[in-house]
Amino acid sequence: MGPPNERGNKRRRLDTKEDEEPERVDISTLKPAKFKPTEPRDWTISVAVPTSVITDCVTREQRTTYAGRIARALAIFSVDEIVIFDDSPPDSRPAKVDHEAYTGDVDPAHFLVHLLTYLEAPPFMRKSLFPMHPNLRSTGLLPNMDMPHHPHKDEWLPYREGLTISGKTKNGKGTLVDIGMRQPVSVPDEVPPKTRLTLKLGDIPDANVEPEAVHPNLPRTEGGYFWGYTVRKAGSLSQVFTESAYEDGYDMSIGTSERGLPVNRAFPYSDTVSDFKHLLVVFGGPRGLEFSAMNDPELTEVNVGGGRIRELFDHWVNVLPNQGSRGIRTDEAMLIALTSLRRLWDLS
């Protein structure tokens, strides 16, 4: 989940509570967090979004708030992976982009990945992980994500995100880790400063228990907690599939289009959830997924486009037939689609 450590030459505005370091508190004062775990799960939900979603945004502020709406919508539905894929015409892409400068208007994939990664990180560690950059000048417009791994000062969870810091531990061995409390904790491993770690703390607040550094997936696979999302950039629609982070790829894929089947016809109601390991839901931009396929050289080479694009997916769905507005923005379609599709993995 590492953020892109990119430096800019302008001071970043820190005018929001989201960027302020929380008041540090003693472990003994903490109470259990309101987040209740589900059954531990090894299955995942991924959502792919094209860069064209911000082509109609004409200002930095509009692009920033759009990224915030994407992040907020997908966090609400506990999406584990966000894939940003470039669906712009290949001949319109600049040969070289200065990633030290503002990229919202020249490399929207970089811009969206930067903002989404920033939003995923716990607020108390953002200043350390994200150097000042022009892309982050309007962070005061971004929403509060409030995910389980974004700790409240008075709440306790069995897991916590931390950032390694310089300094000596009590016994002179291991590494200090800032976890957003009054005092840092230590782990026995030697880890370089400014490294993000996932720690297992235990089921109850206990300052005498030494935290254990664990795999970032463990809160989900062992504890049943949604623990944020990863962000991946893909150069095209086809690369969403071919460059999957999962060894066997996605075993169920859903494409969204106003020309698809209504959700209740694509997925008739049943008493059991769908059988998948890694589900992928792909959204189009203002001109739909057909536009994404048209600008993908690998797909055009095999004549996949227009009506044939649905062949890329296991299911081709219309998330809101008979809509009352001429167009539905992608960020709106996400909320509608995930509300309808959530029954595929959650019958509670």
UniProtKB/TrEMBL annotation:
InterPro entries recorded: Alpha/beta_knot_MTases, NA-bd_OB-fold, Put_MeTrfase-C9orf114-like, tRNA_m1G_MTases_N
Signal sequence extent: none
Species lineage: Eukaryota, Fungi, Dikarya, Ascomycota, Pezizomycotina
Protein name: DUF171-domain-containing protein
Family, per entry: Belongs to the class IV-like SAM-binding methyltransferase superfamily.
Species, as recorded: Coniochaeta pulveracea
Pfam families: Methyltrn_RNA_3
Region of interest (Disordered), ranges: 1-26
